[in-house]
């Protein structure tokens, strides 16, 4: 199977490309890596996506390209909608038009996070995002659902994950380690959020899970509605819990103070 990955230079995108390179179903030519020079979220059009599909002839597109800066999305919701919602709809529509399977990478941020029982959100749970990033990704999911209604035979999937970390760095663990070093130099504790709970998830594990789903025909197979998969690591933690574990593993010896 010829699999194309958008956002191939990003954190999850590069993990997907690496995992697909080792997958037997991709064949000797390997995966197709589409990064910003090929597919720019700010400038893409239906025609530009169609040209890419005709040029590279993928059978499945995994759309990992996104603007994941939650604070940046909050400052510019219109740009977040363009990059994360509208762009995903354009890529998905081009895939449906050309008979190419399409899998959207989405996020836990489509949920409101107000559950107090710590029971995981199931794929079918009501989506109520509380920030512009989550709203932009919900728009993308609704575009996938709209395509399913319009095309019927289109092969569509939604892959939700959460709190991604992994190479090449500049992720939460790297930022916490840097902040801890600054706090230690100043002789101060590190403040970390204690009332936000999630599942820290390693990008290489997500990529391996996507490869397994493709191999099991759990993505690129026709269904009446889009398949929805939650791909996260086991266990739960607050941001403060995660920060403590980073500091412990790095041997930095900095106290973490919980803040709301």
Give an account of the 3D structure.
This protein has 260 residues and is α/β, with parallel strands linked by helices. 42% of the residues lie in helices and 17% in strands. Strands 2-1-3-4-5-10 form a 6-stranded parallel sheet, with helices on both faces. Strands 6-9 form a two-stranded parallel ribbon. A two-stranded parallel ribbon has the order 7-12. Helix 1 packs across helix 7. It is globular and about 60 Å long. The N and C termini lie far apart (47 Å).
Write the layout of secondary structure elements.
Elements: E1 3-6, H1 11-21, E2 32-34, H2 46-56, E3 60-63, H3 70-75, H4 77-97, E4 101-107, H5 132-151, E5 156-161, E6 164-165, H6 172-186, E7 190-193, E8 197-198, E9 201-202, H7 203-215, E10 227-230, E11 237-238, H8 239-250, E12 256-259
Parallel strand pairs: 1-2, 1-3, 3-4, 4-5, 5-10, 6-9, 7-12
Antiparallel strand pairs: 8-11
């Amino acid at each position: 199977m010829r699999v194309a990955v958008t956002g191939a230079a990003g954190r999850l995108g590069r993990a997907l490309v690496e995992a697909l390179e080792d997958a037997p179903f991709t064949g000797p030519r390997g995966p197709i890596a589409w990064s910003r020079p090929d597919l720019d979220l700010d400038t893409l059009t239906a025609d530009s996506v169609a040209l890419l599909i005709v040029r590279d002839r993928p059978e499945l597109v995994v759309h990992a390209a996104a603007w994941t800066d939650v604070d940046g999305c909050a400052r510019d919701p219109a740009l977040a909608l363009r990059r994360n919602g509208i762009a995903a709809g354009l890529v998905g529509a081009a895939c449906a038009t050309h008979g190419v399977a399409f899998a959207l990478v989405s996020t836990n941020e489509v949920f409101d996070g107000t559950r107090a029982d710590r029971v995981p959100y199931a794929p079918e749970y009501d989506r109520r995002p509380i920030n512009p990033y989550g709203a932009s990704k919900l728009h993308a999911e609704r575009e996938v659902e709209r395509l399913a209604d319009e095309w019927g035979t289109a092969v569509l999937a939604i892959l939700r994950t959460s709190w991604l970390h992994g190479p090449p760095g500049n992720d939460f663990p790297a930022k916490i380690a840097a902040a801890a070093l600054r706090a230690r130099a100043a002789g101060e504790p590190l403040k970390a959020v204690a009332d936000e709970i999630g599942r820290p998830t390693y990008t290489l594990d997500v990529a391996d899970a996507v490869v397994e789903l493709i191999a099991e025909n759990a993505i690129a197979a026709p269904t009446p509605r889009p398949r929805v998969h939650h791909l996260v690591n086991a266990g739960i933690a607050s941001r403060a819990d995660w920060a403590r574990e980073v500091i412990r593993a790095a041997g930095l010896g900095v106290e973490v103070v919980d803040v709301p």
